[in-house]
């Protein structure tokens, strides 16, 4: 009989891990304090954009992210098939735009090392950028074009993941209140806020920005912090934009329904997920440098979520040496949607005792202890 795996947290990471584990023949239970997808995962812009966002260094994090981007097309197809739910997944390509001559060197350096990783990228002049996206600002002097970068509609993706998990027979418990760890020695024992107990063989910790709460239990240093992201959306009268546009001050993502998502601020506000005037103004005061027509428009929707940031910017993915039946998969910061397929596959490999697809030593959950 397959092992019983408890997954703590029903965000995109917990649901993806649960889906993969169930497919591999394990019994899987997801324990969620509130609603699945109700935190960072449902708030995301849904960019699958490691080439724009993680462009500084070809390290193990870049490898993890690139591998996940390349897994995404098949992964999302599988989720759609199993859930029988559709959600937007668009291989739109992206433009990483720059405004100053000094930024060109950084793009050229990127192009050199990213090409060695088989990345398709092209440095475009201002004129070539305008051919791709005619309404972009004249202040833009160049852009890197990444045809591989894509996006999903995050709330739809997470909802389909939940449905796919249920279809396969994953048990999902929501609205449990705070779930506490009681023991992880022989068996794993957890207790919900209402006193319900859950028992299994192994535990996968996917509690996002809340993972630090387990520091005392494991006597580990778990520097994962919530970084609030405030974000907004515009309703365009027609589908005017085709690509993700990424700049150092913010990004826009055009969705199939004609809305343009504009993200996202970064601030420290504890676990508050409210939207502030200042946070949204940071976006609306800048975005006309991307598309001048935005100056005349007002966002029709604003929201916020808590990114699970880590002290060194790398996620916590791996088994504990002190308790081999405990796996961390948390701290995905700005890229949890992108990293959901690779994280699920790594968790599946760890539980199954197989080598992982990519190196994960750099992401050890014990690296700060
Ligand atoms: P969460 O979605 O926060 O899920 C964690 C879950 O654990 C929560 O549901 C919580 O209730 C539950 N939980 C916590 N503690 C307990 C407990 N003790 N008991 C039971 N349940 C518990 N990423 C991208 O890849 N692309 C993007 O374009 C992108 N844009 C973003 C834009 C914004 C504005 C924000 C805020 C984030 C964005 N991200 C993006 C980042 C991405 O959303 C996160 O990295 C990802 O959602 C993290 O997923 P998670 O499952 O770890 O966390
Ligand atoms: N990855 C986009 C964001 O976190 O805002």
Automatic annotation (TrEMBL):
Top EC class, one word: oxidoreductase
Enzyme Commission numbers on file: 1.4.3.19
GO terms, biological process: thiamine biosynthetic process; thiamine diphosphate biosynthetic process
Protein name per Swiss-Prot or TrEMBL: glycine oxidase
GO molecular function annotations of the record: flavin adenine dinucleotide binding; glycine oxidase activity
Pfam families given in the database record: DAO (PF01266)
Cellular component terms (Gene Ontology): cytoplasm
SUPFAM superfamilies xref list: FAD-linked reductases, C-terminal domain, FAD/NAD(P)-binding domain
Pathway linked to the protein: Cofactor biosynthesis; thiamine diphosphate biosynthesis
Domain FAD dependent oxidoreductase: residue ranges: 5-350
Reactions it catalyzes: glycine + O2 + H2O = glyoxylate + H2O2 + NH4(+)
Keywords, in A-Z order: Oxidoreductase, Thiamine biosynthesis
